[in-house]
């Protein structure tokens, strides 16, 4: 499906920038337009692929291009004040060619955390196409303020979008590696997962269209109904059928290769589906109770079969208890078979409950510290017997 992506704040901008790079590399054609919005000029300058004219600096009057410094209330305010500037950039894109908006932001900082929900609300008022969010949770080691920001942004963002897809930095940190150092790799993991999901509904004219191919309306239907989503993913390398060349791709002739027998293909798919659903999700949660799911099997068409996808789909129905599990394939000439599973409407998410708890503690601490420091300052400035008079 074709998306208008808007990256809000540094993380949002970098991820959208990476989506453009992914689009370029794979020819997936999912990014119809890409915009970056930020209150920090340097962050906008650091982007590589988003066109200069699509980089929008907001809040200049308030923060002079230096960012809002993790103050997400200020982030929300400057977004509201300068929403027309963002709208101007959106006006320049052909929205009639777009299936949905995707607003991407890190929820722990200030600009994206506060601004993304403001933008989502604005877009929903103006456009009839769905507005989705892709929100990134901060690592637990980032500190109380980031957690508090994320918890508040999460509540607001979910309310303002048609569906909030969540990626949790914390569960993607490599052991012994700071989250910061791993952003490059983490961002690649993000675009790979969401790239396959959204790419599934975007099979080009020249590509083979199997009857079970995923359509963008299936992605939209899976996301409709709102709430929070997570994505599972697993892949396995396969040999491209180079002997058959281009012809085999269109005829589906596998060239009689022994490895490609149907049983192998089916087994590979069913085990990938299990690995994807039971392995690391973008937002860790219990998959039982998921409202809707979409299974996408991507790979060379000779490695995809209906039986495998059907089995995977049925298994997912049993595991989630959902009656709305869609499934289909996404033929593409990459040397891997990949299963991407969108679990939409998840509600049993202990990670969010923990985030909220830590956020409330941080909020209480911040209030206490503020009160204490006011008292301390007064004690310092005022003389004991109150004998001195201030000048005015
Ligand atoms: N996955 C991922 N997360 C990131 C990246 N950069 C930052 N983050 C996360 O996003 C959160 C928000 O950071 P930024 O996006 O830098 O903040 P901002 O929205 O620009 O806001 P301010 O800098 O406060 O104005 C951080 O707490 C990190 O958890 C990135 O490249 N990838």
TrEMBL record:
Pfam families cross-referenced by the UniProt entry: CetZ_C, Tubulin
Record's keyword terms, sorted: Cell shape, Coiled coil, Cytoplasm, GTP-binding, Nucleotide-binding
Residues noted as binding GTP in the record, renumbered to the chain: 10-14, 110-112, 142, 169, 187
Main location: cytoplasm
Tubulin/FtsZ GTPase domain: residues covered: 2-195
Single GO cellular component term: microtubule
Matching InterPro entries: CetZ, CetZ_C, FtsZ/CetZ, Tubulin/FtsZ-like_C, Tubulin/FtsZ_GTPase_sf, Tubulin_CS, Tubulin_FtsZ_GTPase
Entries under Gene3D superfamilies matching the protein: Tubulin/FtsZ, C-terminal domain, Tubulin/FtsZ, GTPase domain
Domain of life assignment: Archaea
Coiled coil (residue ranges): 352-379
Keyword rRNA processing: no
GO biological process, alphabetically ordered: cell division; microtubule-based process; regulation of cell shape
A molecular-function term among this protein's GO annotations: GTP binding
SMART domains in the record: Tubulin
Compartment annotation: Cytoplasm
Function (record text): Involved in cell shape control.
HAMAP family per the UniProt record, alphabetical: CetZ
PANTHER family noted in UniProt: CELL DIVISION PROTEIN FTSZ-RELATED, TUBULIN-LIKE PROTEIN CETZ
Family: Belongs to the CetZ family.
Name of the featured protein: Tubulin-like protein CetZ
Biological classification of the source: Archaea, Methanobacteriati, Methanobacteriota, Stenosarchaea group, Halobacteria
